[in-house]
């Protein structure tokens, strides 16, 4: 799934039979991917926010 929201793009990516929601801010400065296109996912460690599972269940 691809959603264009003006100042950001939201992609729903399938990884190992799970889904990952990815939000790209300022999409004019990034490549726009098509549905079904194969992509590589990488994370900047300082940009990650890990939420403990216990907090998600609340």
Observed structural traits:
ATP binding, mainly beta, transmembrane transporter activity, 58 residues, 3 strands, Transport-associated OB type 2 domain-containing protein, 3-stranded antiparallel beta sheet, Transp-assoc_OB_typ2, 1 helix
Question: Could you please describe the fold and organization of this structure?
Answer:
This protein is mainly beta and 58 residues long. It has one domain. The chain has a three-stranded antiparallel β-sheet with strand order 1-2-3, with no helix packed on it. A hairpin with a 2-residue loop joins strand 2 and strand 3. The protein is globular. It starts with a strand and ends with a helix.
Characterize this entry briefly:
The chain is mainly beta.
Shape type? globular
What are the segments in which pLDDT stays under 50 over at least 5 consecutive residues? none
SSE arrangement, N to C = EEEH
**DSSP helix count?**
1
Helix content: under 10%
- Portion in strands: 25-35%
**Strand segment tally:** 3
Estimate the mean pLDDT confidence: 79
Largest sheet: 3 strands, antiparallel
Give the quaternary arrangement of the chains. Answer: single chain
What is the spatial order of strands in the main beta sheet? 1-2-3
Overall domain count: 1
Distance between the ends: 27 Å
Cα Rg: 13 Å
Classify the secondary structure makeup into a structural class.
Answer: mainly beta
């Amino acid at each position: 799934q691809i959603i264009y929201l003006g100042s950001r793009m939201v992609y729903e990516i399938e990884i190992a039979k799970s889904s990952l929601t990815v939000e790209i801010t300022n999409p004019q400065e990034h490549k726009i991917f098509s549905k079904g296109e194969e992509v590589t996912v990488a994370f900047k460690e300082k940009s990650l926010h890990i939420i403990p599972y216990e907090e998600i269940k609340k």
